Amino acid sequence: GRPAQLYLEEVIRDAFAVFEDDIRKLGVKVTVPRSQTLVRVDPAEMQEVIINLLHNSLYWLEQVSESKREVAVKVERKGPDHVDILFSDSGPGVLDENRELIFEPYFSTKPDGVGLGLAIVGEIVTDYYNGSLDLLDRGPLKGANFLITLRKRV
């Protein structure tokens, strides 16, 4: 990729803009960060990360009532080489028996799923940013809560 110095929150907002129509149609309440965290990332790589997570969330949010559909993203700089992105939704979450499998290539619980989204996200985060992608036991919303940690180029 081609790293550029930019605000991470801008990349996140741009990724959400891709699904603007779907978000509106599904009636999803969205909370994106208003902070400004200057990082050196490839915008296409970071957008791919957020788009994959958001795409999954929108699919699973269809399983809950419209009044409970919510996605929230938070960005926090923990140090000079450490930025966390917390991505949460209010969907049904991940079944215990699938918690480890969801990161495996070609594993999907979606009827038409290919099973590459989270595998790609994990590879981008680990290979290019010396980071990690973790499914948390709990978070701000009751569905799936992912913690993306970036430790390089940030």
Q: Share of helix among residues?
A: 25-40%
Q: Based on Cα principal axes, name the global outline.
A: globular
Distance between the termini: 14 Å
Beta-strand proportion: 25-35%
Q: Major sheet: order of its strands?
A: 2-4-5-7-6
What letter string, H or E per element, gives the SSE order? EHHEEHEEHEE
Q: What is the number of strand segments?
A: 7
Radius of gyration: 15 Å
Outline the biggest β-sheet.
Answer: 5 strands, mixed
- List the uncertain runs: none
Helical stretch count? 4
| Main structural class | alpha+beta
Mean pLDDT: 92
Defining key terms:
154 residues, five-stranded mixed sheet, two-stranded antiparallel ribbon, 4 helices
Précis, in short:
The protein has about 150 residues and is α+β, with helices and mostly antiparallel strands. Helices cover about 30% and strands about 25% of the residues.
Structure description:
The chain is an alpha+beta fold and 154 residues long. The chain is built from four helices and seven strands; from the N terminus they run βααββαββαββ. Strand 4 and strand 5 (82-89) form a beta hairpin. Helix 3 packs antiparallel against helix 4 (117-129). The two termini are 14 Å apart.
